[in-house]
Amino acid sequence: MDVKNMLAVAAAGALVSGCAATAAETETATVSTSSASKSASKIAFPSTYKAYPSEKTVITGVTIFDGEGQRIDNGVVIMSAGKILSVGGPETAVPTDSIVIDGTGKFVTPGIIDVHSHLGDYPTPSVAAHSDGNEATSPVTPEVWAEHSVWPQDPGFSRALANGGITALQILPGSANLFGGRAVTLKNVPARTVQAMKFPNAPYGMKMACGENPKRVYGNRNRKPATRMGSLALTRQTWVNAQDYRKKRKGAKPPKRNLAMDTLAGVLDGDILVHNHCYRADELNQIIDMSKEFGYKVTAFHHAVESYKIADILAKEGICSAIWADWWGFKMEAYDAIPENAALLQQAGACVIIHSDDENQIQRLNQEASKALADGRAMGIEISDAQAIQWITYNPAKAMGIADQTGSLKPGKMADLVLWNDNPLSVYARPEKVWIDGAMLFDANDPARRPVSDFELGQPGEGDVK
Q1: Residue 324 and residue 341: Cα distance in Å, rounded?
Q2: CA-to-CA distance for 422 and 441, rounded, in angstroms?
Q3: What is residue 42's predicted lDDT score, i.e. its pLDDT?
Q4: pLDDT range class, residue 466, cuts 50, 70, 90
Q5: Strand partners of residue 320
Q6: How far apart are CA 344 and CA 350, in angstroms?
Q7: Residue pair 417/409 in contact by the 8 Å Cβ criterion
Q8: How many CA atoms lie within 13 A of 61 on its CB side?
Q9: What angle do CA 193, 43, 178 make, to 5 degrees?
Q10: Phi/psi of residue 62, each to 5°?
């Protein structure tokens, strides 16, 4: 099959407008009788995601970074029925009934994953009417869900796909509150509803925060927390209340349902993963101590600019650090940030993630990983390109609880991958093609294969790729 025919996926044309009816929305989610016994918190707003149509596709002669630290030169990747069928070297047999793409001189990685995004909750254009990421009306708001603010028409989603190769991302509430609410993991596909973007079977996250943000927001209102000690006291008391609710819920006379406590009980049950905004090393350690006091685990510290100071502790505890490459000095708790943070964590055997927290930086996570890698090498820490790719693929997938489904190029996993026109750690590299569940959703060589949201239609810069 020639290249022109290869680009004509069964759903050709469906991607031109992000609000056309998608494969993800051909059925409406319903609650079956068999699931009636489950708690309402587990069946509310279920995913209706369905993959776009795909074709068996083979990429040959390509350099492969598999997402788990391995590199294969002159490799072969085979996708079929939306899954990775095979990944191997030049000896890999190429099926005759497939589309074949010559990857000579190019690179393949798993789809890039951002563990910390606010797309949809703080969409473009950034106006007050769109500011839906922080429920800054109380320091404790675990009852709110980020997905209920997500606007699927945010042009940021398609920019992240086309410029950054982003195939999955976690949308978090903001960090004004000690308990910010539930986070949601999305597949980065065009859809009319957030439920049609929800990553199937992904666990919920919960956003927590410590440090300057909560004490500034509420201290300025002359209410708790105005200090770090006030923050810890209020957080601990909230966990005490959650433990009591959880105990009573399992008793003979369950308490009246409480949405906030449902989320916190889900954390204590191990069903909801904790993502904690925190900067200073001393506070990271205090949060770890508190988590042990109440019997939950921190999955990842976000921003964590001083993680390098306690890298050994984070490695021992199995806690990821979701960090920037070099953001520094924009507030006091960011003062001691160093660009070698990622490399020092890697050297200590800790989990490293490069995240965005920004609508523009999400389009360049590959370059951010490259900067962190270069800074580590400059101080003599040997880290391979393949290991650095892990920071933006497998490790975020692990922290989001979806590494069994995506994040690396392994047979049986979702065919979420990016074909780059150069080494993705080069400043000159750009995504050439992006597949999600084996469906080609972006092709730099085909203007029709560039998702455009309804909001952008007819406006200057419609569908720009920069």
Answers
A1: 9
A2: 19
A3: 59
A4: low
A5: 300
A6: 9
A7: yes
A8: 8
A9: 80
A10: -105, 150
**E-strand spans in 252-342?**
273-278, 298-303, 320-323
Q: Give the 3-state secondary structure percentages of the chain, helix then strand then coil, rounded to 5.
A: 30, 20, 50
Phi, psi for 141 (deg, rounded to 5): -135, 55
Cα separation, 298 vs 319, in Å, equals 7
Q: Residue 289: pLDDT above 70? A: yes
Tokens of 441: 């959703």
Any residues with CB less than 8 A from the CB of 8 and at least 6 apart, and which?
none
Q: Could you count the other beta carbons within 10 Å of the beta carbon of residue 223?
A: 12
Q: What token pair was written down for 238? A: 């909230």
Whole-model pTM? 0.91
Can you spell out the DSSP letters for 106-171?
Answer: -EEEEPEEEEEE-TTTSPSS--GGG--S--TT-SB-TT-BGGGG--TT-HHHHHHHHHH-EEEEEE
pLDDT tens digits, 86-121: 999 999 999 999 999 999 999 999 999 999 999 999
Give the model confidence (pLDDT) of 347-385 as tens digits: 999 999 999 999 999 999 999 999 999 999 999 999 999
Least confidently predicted of 13-22, 102-111, 270-279, 310-319: 13-22
Q: Which of 46, 75, 73 is nearest to 58 (CA)?
A: 75
Q: In the chain, what percentage of residues exceed pLDDT 90?
A: 85
Burial of 421 (C-beta count, 10 Å sphere; 0-12/13-18/19+): middle
> Do the bridges between strand 99-102 and strand 57-65 make them parallel or antiparallel, or are there none, so unpaired?
parallel
Cα torsion 84, 89, 92, 95: sign: positive
Which among 131, 130, 143 is positioned nearest to 177, based on CA atoms? Answer: 143
Please, is 287 exposed, middle or buried when counting C-beta atoms within 10 Å of its C-beta (0-12, 13-18, 19+)? buried
d(CA 84, CA 81) in angstroms, rounded, equals: 8
How high is the mean pLDDT of the chain? 91
What are the tens digits of pLDDT across the range 172-221?
999 999 999 999 999 999 999 999 999 999 999 999 999 999 999 999 99
DSSP one-letter code for 20: S
Q: Which letter, b or e, does each residue of 40-64 get, where b requires 16 or more Cβ atoms within 10 Å of its Cβ?
A: ebeeeeebbbbbbebbebbbbebbb
pLDDT of residue 459: 85
Tokens of 429: 């590299």
